[in-house]
Amino acid sequence: MTETRRFALAGNPNSGKSTLFNVLTGMHQKTGNLPGVTVEKKTGKFRFRNTLFAVEDIPGIYSLNPRTADERIAVDLILDDSPNAPEFFVFVADSTQLRKSLYLFLQMQEAGCPMILALNMYDMAEKRGLQIDTEILGRELGVPVTVLTASKSKGLEELQEQLHDFPARPRRTGALELDAESAFKRIDKLLEKVQSWKANRIFQRSSDRWDRLFLHPVWGYVCFFLILFLTFQGVFFLAEFPRSWIESGFLFTAEKLEELLPIGPIRDLLVNGILPGLSGVLMFLPQIALLFLFLIILEDSGYMVRATLLMDKVMRRAGLNGRSVIPMISGVACAIPAIMATRTISQPRDRLITMFIIPFISCSARLPVFILLVSLILPNERFLGVFNYQGLALTGLYLAGFIAAFLTAILLNRGMKKTRQDLFLMEIPEYRLPHWPVVMRHVGNRCMSFMSEAGKVILAVSILLWALSNYGPADFREGSHETRTPLEESFAGIGGKFIEPVIKPLGYDWKIGIAIVSSFAAREVFVGSISTLYHLEDPEDKEGILTILGRPGGISTASAVSLLFFYLFALQCASTLVVMKRETGGWKWPVIQFSFMACLAYLSAWAAFQLLS
Amino acid sequence: MNLSDLHRGKEATIAEIHEEVLALRLQEFGIFAGSLIRITGCAPSGCPIMLEAGGTRIGLRREQAALIKISPLD
Q1: Does A180 sit within 8 Å of B25, measured CB to CB?
Q2: A533 with A465: CB under 8 angstroms?
Q3: What phi and psi values does residue A387 have, to the nearest 5 degrees?
Q4: Taking residues A549-565, what's their average pLDDT?
Q5: Partner residue facing A312 (CB), from B21, B48, B57
Q6: Which of A243, A245, A267, A266 lies closest to A255 in space, CA to CA?
Q7: d(CA A57, CA A150)
Q8: Contact A217 B61 (CB under 8 A)
């Protein structure tokens, strides 16, 4: 029989808790080099010597006095004394930042938390010539102490050994009376005893050299925009190869299925309904994976904090604060984690404005739609030998999203009552090389969740769409089963024609109309639906979707541009609305947000089409 | 003299912090009246400024730095 022991990882932000969590559990979890990036509760399991351990990763905090929603979650988890609370804690401290870490440690000890002290990033400390006497430290603090370097999986076994031997004992509760000043007096005295420096090594933060570049009055901004620009260029350029493999893989599968299966509704559903729908989305997986990869590297390396510093002044013009930059940039991946990341903003007003404008930032679900439409309008060629036309257009679309977000923020800022300015105080971590296994696992995890969530919706929508497009009222009259129902006379066709008057001024025909309606729950469905619909119109056509759409009778340039504007602004994402409702505590803001964005989308799409046609 | 007047690379000790929330926040990093503080740089637009104290590096807006009274060292 095995017993399960529950413990939690606690510590300051950037102490490497998430990395330790990853190497312990092998489970997928993000490690951020950014204060407050671990917003949600993460749990995992691992086995050591017949004991099953259940671990929980608690967001990093500096003290038990919470100020933001994010910190409150962490403090509540630590002070939880219910039966399903963790039995004990592993306090993860950055060995090079021991002084600051020990304050929270002492507070937690006073609150009665049983702990093991894990001195992480010990290799960094050694590199700087810092030595820590763990024996004295453990004796003075009255807890087991262990050193480790989680990113290199060094010292893990010793920690696991200590976890295994940790005595089970009931948790006591203590009152918090420790004041910061006397706590730090005690810490300084203690550190004098346990820390020793090799005298001949004077350490110079290598981060300073990088900061001279990244925070330079001119080069800092140049680098910022260059990094964003290269990210989007890279997304387009590098993803091209896997994308074409995926596309030809699907065409091959479709051909094989046609050979193998007998003619009938099942073959038709598979070949003309499900496969085009799925391939329409899978084709964009490489782009999404690359975008996440770049974002995670920027976050884990510590660059995002510099971007925050760089943009604080600009953001304040729009009534936001530097802290809004991180949620906004994460919005490029997905609005949902971005909206949740606003919990680190302590002023409710700033937080609301940030949440309101996040859906304007082009998320990865818009990426498939953008790529499809941009590929229709522009050639995949380079201009001046360096700039990819499509990549440039994509950069422009993302910029347009940011500008719309800003203008909306300014508008809201004017309209809402002013409150006291938020205290902007942010720890600046050193630059760090990302821990690749963690980065890769995280990218994989993000792709999997995109696939499973988008995949489910798209599968359901493709089947529904296939059924609605293959059958029409005529099929239910007698004697008409021999011939295939033309798309125009199917249920979907009739529905599309019904809404055509509304979307005609935007340059959309009924097929595009059906695709838009089908993408109300999630934008990326548009691509799958378009792909399914155009395949159904002429099932014998074996060309790729881009070729079909590019031909006369497909989507014209004016309509494509109009669609780009529509998707740039419309809040076509049910999950975002649900998260907004949860975070703002009601339907008022999501409804305002949805209507505002819908009006903007319709008007801009209309203007674009009228100008171009 | 206030922290916002301190030049880059120069050190000072904190004399007084005029804002309670700011003081509490800095306390968590082990920074009090009497602590040694150094300006390490600033964002391109001059704000926020970056400072180092108690082994921690922190970004702080200029108007908040103006609430920290210092006595410079020479």
Answers
A1: no
A2: yes
A3: -85, 125
A4: 86
A5: B48
A6: A267
A7: 14
A8: no
Percentages helix, strand, coil for chain B (3-state, rounded to 5) are 20, 40, 40
Task: Pick A306 or A233 by higher pLDDT.
Answer: A306
Expressed in percent and rounded to 5, the helix, strand and coil fractions of chain A are 65, 10, 30
Token duo for residue A12: 């300051």
Helix A366-377 × helix A557-569 angle, to 10°: 160
The helix or strand, by DSSP H or E, that contains position A609, with its residue range, turns out to be helix A588-612
The band of A31, judged by pLDDT with boundaries at 50, 70 and 90, is: very low
Strands laid side by side in the A88-94 sheet: A42-48, A51-57, A4-11, A88-94, A115-120, A145-147
DSSP letters spanning A20-31: HHHHHH------
Indicate whether A232 pLDDT > 80. Answer: no
Give the one of A99, A310, A322 whose C-beta lies nearest to B55's C-beta: A99
pLDDT score recorded for residue B74: 63
Q: Of how many residues is chain A composed? A: 613
Q: Which residues of B touch A309 (CB under 8 A)?
A: 43, 48, 50, 59
Per-residue pLDDT tens over the stretch A382-435: 777 677 788 888 889 988 998 999 999 999 888 877 666 667 788 888 888 888
**Set of chain A residues whose Cβ sits within 8 Å of the Cβ of B64:** 423-425
Region B10-22 average pLDDT: 87
Cα first-last separation, chain B: 14
